[in-house]
Design goal:
Organism: candidate division TA06 bacterium 34_109
Cofactor: Zn(2+)
GO molecular function: hydrolase activity; metal ion binding
CATH superfamily: Ribonuclease Z/Hydroxyacylglutathione hydrolase-like
Oligomer: single chain
Number of domains: 1
Protein name: Beta-lactamase domain protein
Helix content: 10-25%
Strand content: 25-35%
Number of strands: 14
CATH topology: Metallo-beta-lactamase, Chain A
Structural class: alpha/beta
InterPro entries: MBL_Glyoxalase_II, Metallo-B-lactamas, RibonucZ/Hydroxyglut_hydro
Length: 212
Amino acid sequence: MGQTKLKIECLINGQIETNTYFIISKDRRVLIVDPADGEKVFDFIKKNELIPEKIINTHGHYDHISGNQFIKNHFDIPICVGVLDYDYLLDPELNMSYYIGENYISPEAEILLDDNSKISFGGEIIDIVSTPGHTPGSISLIFDNKIVSGDLIFTEGIGRTDLAGGDPQKIIESVKKLFSKPNKESKIFPGHGLYGGLKMFKEVLNEFNIRS
């Protein structure tokens, strides 16, 4: 098999240690997934001499979108989000910033994603999978045996469903959908905490009778 055209790097940042991911092409272009602390994300981009192309929010909660404005101010690049989370970017109560006294409103998303959307980047195709439950418009990204899953699943459990738009049945369906035919080589990159191979998530997946 040939060498992958894309690599992924993680920056832990923001008030509750969000995993911001940088999907980087061979020519140093980058997709920024879930920027939390805009200044730290900006510094990472400059330090690594990257060329931003898009911001992708896996969902519309404050800790995953709070860097949108800062990045947008410095790089005129589009924001992408799941179609059902479009309003979350613009509503401090939905994105939860209201409850910590921030009242954050992100710039509007220019690109709305849903199940089976695809992003062509760096000579590869990134598949978008709708994975609702944590929020109605939560999405996951899949490319080269890598799964960027937002707040769907963590090493210690699945995402919260007690916030606005959360649905405990849908999040279970989303986990089963995403991992119904797990590739043994897959690596999971969640919105918080540890990331790595399927074995790290074995206990959680076993709860849904998914053999990792």
